[in-house]
Amino acid sequence: MRDALLISVLAGTFLMSGGGSAFARDQGPPPDKGSFDSTDCKACHEPAVTKMEQTKHGSLAESCATCHDRTKAMEHSKGRADGLETPGPSLKDMKAKDVNATCLGCHEKGNQEAWASGMHDRRNLACTTCHSIHAFKSTKAQLKTTTDSETCFGCHKAERAMAQRTSHHPVREGKMGCVSCHNPHDGSRPKMLKAESVNELCYTCHAEKRGPFLFEHAPVREDCVSCHQPHGSNHKRLLVQKLPNLCWNCHLTGSGHFGSGDNLSTELGARTAPAGSPSGFPTVNSRFVEKNCKNCHMNIHGSNSPSGAYFIR
Ligand code: HEC
Ligand code: HEC
Ligand code: HEC
Ligand code: HEC
Ligand code: HEC
Ligand code: HEC
Ligand code: HEC
Ligand code: HEC
Ligand code: HEC
Ligand code: HEC
User: Fold this and answer.
1) pTM, whole model, 2 decimals?
2) What is the CA(137)–ligand 3 centre distance, in A?
3) 216-249: burial string, b at 16+ Cβ within 10 Å, e else
4) For 47-70, what is each residue's pLDDT tens digit?
5) Quick one: which atom of ligand 6 is closest to the CA of 224?
6) How far is it, in rounded angstroms, from Cα 263 to Cα 206?
7) Which of 198, 253, 264 to probe ligand 9 with, by most ligand atoms within 8 A of CB?
């Protein structure tokens, strides 16, 4: 039943992709189907074929020519059987785009739909840079490494270094992977994120930060990564900078807490505290006290308190 379904799926895909690939491969029931027998191949390539038979590509094992050049495969098989050193139909010399066309012939939907023109496509990565058909190490998705993060770390050294910092998403603990946030096949979204924007991505796991809030802190609404480094930081809570410097980037406290020294206030002109804001805060221009911004401005992501305009409640 499963096999019948699979075959019909594959047949459909073949019709749709209609020989767009640079490879020789089966096009429905081909007249030369019997020209070589994959059991011949198996006799000499036992490990490669056995491993493949255990995967979802198992039913393709009957037809090595789905991916390997048919003519070369036949010559090779015959030659080798006659004791000649006939080279195998290796995919190593294939251009990335040709390998990809073969794989995409069947994988043009779902997560791979927007492969074309993504950064990995543009930088000439092949599906087989990360995946293996015959010799893979992961339990999921046939990767050449045990985990997805190891695959990515092979090229993304900066992110690998950041993952070692004290504050980090639990990637190195194996509770999350790079693919928790990225789809490495997707060229349709900025930075191959798994959501339409950075904030939408963060909200999928940190829903409480979405609000709605009565009082929003503008940078939080706009872009979480203006304050957080998702790949890792040596400042606590993944902050891009330590407190209070982070706040001072945008809120330069000059001579006094309420003074016109505020970067934003300066731009907008000196402001006075709105009616209803807390009183009894006259001595706050002690720099020492001021530095612990978070002690008072504890709801820095937004507040739902009627008197939360300053995120102090
Ligand atoms: C009589 C034994 C024999 C038969 C039959 C045979 N091969 Fe090979 N094949 C070999 C040998 C030996 C090599 C060289 C292996 C090496 O260099 O490590 C090889 C190499 C290959 C390679 C290249 C490996 C690489 O270096 O990338 C491929 C692909 C391959 N064979 C596919 C096939 C397919 C498909 C068939 C069936 C159509 C087949 N072989 C039948 C013995 C055989
Ligand atoms: C879905 C595509 C696909 C099919 C079908 C396929 N191969 Fe391969 N084969 C590959 C790719 C890609 C490589 C390059 C190495 C890798 O990714 O594992 C490869 C490499 C090989 C190699 C050399 C590397 C190794 O692991 O020894 C052999 C031998 C081989 N294939 C034999 C076969 C035989 C025999 C069949 C049919 C029973 C077959 N292949 C069917 C895609 C395929
Ligand atoms: C003839 C069709 C066909 C071709 C060509 C093909 N695949 Fe597949 N592949 C399948 C099918 C069918 C499945 C199972 C789909 C599913 O589970 O949704 C699959 C599954 C996979 C999976 C998921 C395995 C898992 O454990 O979840 C990966 C990864 C994959 N293929 C990679 C490749 C790569 C890389 C190539 C090119 C070298 C390739 N495929 C070529 C049909 C094909
Ligand atoms: C940069 C590495 C990389 C490249 C290049 C790559 N993949 Fe993947 N692929 C992955 C990882 C990692 C996963 C596991 C995703 C997950 O667990 O969410 C995956 C999963 C898959 C899956 C199975 C589940 C799914 O997400 O659909 C298929 C099928 C697949 N890839 C096909 C392809 C094809 C076809 C290509 C080439 C066009 C390709 N991949 C190129 C890394 C890669
Ligand atoms: C073979 C090397 C290689 C591997 C493996 C690899 N990448 Fe990349 N990736 C690149 C290159 C090259 C770029 C282009 C930008 C650059 O040079 O950093 C890139 C860019 C990216 C980008 C930025 C995309 C953009 O639009 O700016 C993301 C995100 C990314 N990769 C994620 C991943 C993830 C997740 C994995 C693991 C599943 C992975 N990469 C594995 C080579 C690789
Ligand atoms: C918690 C979510 C998350 C995880 C986990 C994650 N990333 Fe990212 N990544 C992001 C976001 C968000 C951006 C975009 C940042 C921006 O716009 O400045 C990004 C950007 C990138 C870029 C592009 C960097 C640039 O300067 O353009 C690369 C490459 C990248 N990530 C690789 C990885 C790798 C490799 C892993 C696994 C070690 C990983 N990411 C894990 C969220 C994540
Ligand atoms: C796939 C789920 C997921 C996504 C998406 C995600 N996170 Fe997380 N985040 C987590 C998990 C899990 C933790 C660890 C919680 C724990 O250790 O209790 C965490 C922790 C954090 C922490 C606290 C770190 C610390 O040192 O305590 C910050 C800050 C954070 N995430 C920010 C972000 C930002 C910003 C984004 C969007 C770029 C984001 N997260 C996207 C799952 C996610
Ligand atoms: C204006 C800077 C700023 C922005 C923008 C920002 N945060 Fe934060 N975030 C902080 C500060 C400051 C802390 C607390 C650090 C501490 O406890 O010392 C924090 C802590 C966190 C924590 C861990 C503690 C907690 O409150 O759960 C998470 C998770 C988090 N932020 C997620 C997000 C998300 C998601 C976004 C985007 C919607 C975001 N942050 C935007 C400054 C910011
Ligand atoms: C990326 C720039 C940026 C960073 C970093 C930042 N803020 Fe803001 N903050 C703003 C903007 C923009 C507003 C809205 C100003 C307005 O509407 O006049 C604002 C508003 C506020 C307000 C409300 C009062 C007002 O003027 O409307 C407080 C209180 C505040 N921020 C405190 C902090 C604290 C504490 C930190 C550090 C944890 C911080 N901010 C970090 C940009 C930033
Ligand atoms: C001791 C508590 C306390 C500390 C510490 C504190 N603030 Fe405030 N802050 C307040 C209160 C209360 C207000 C509201 C003022 C009012 O009621 O008029 C306020 C107002 C603000 C405003 C809005 C003022 C304006 O002129 O628009 C900003 C911006 C701000 N704080 C930033 C910071 C930053 C940045 C730090 C750390 C360097 C910090 N605060 C430390 C209590 C504090």
Assistant:
1) 0.91
2) 15
3) ebeebbeebbebbbbbbbebeebbeeebbebbee
4) 999 999 999 898 886 789 889 988
5) 12
6) 30
7) 264
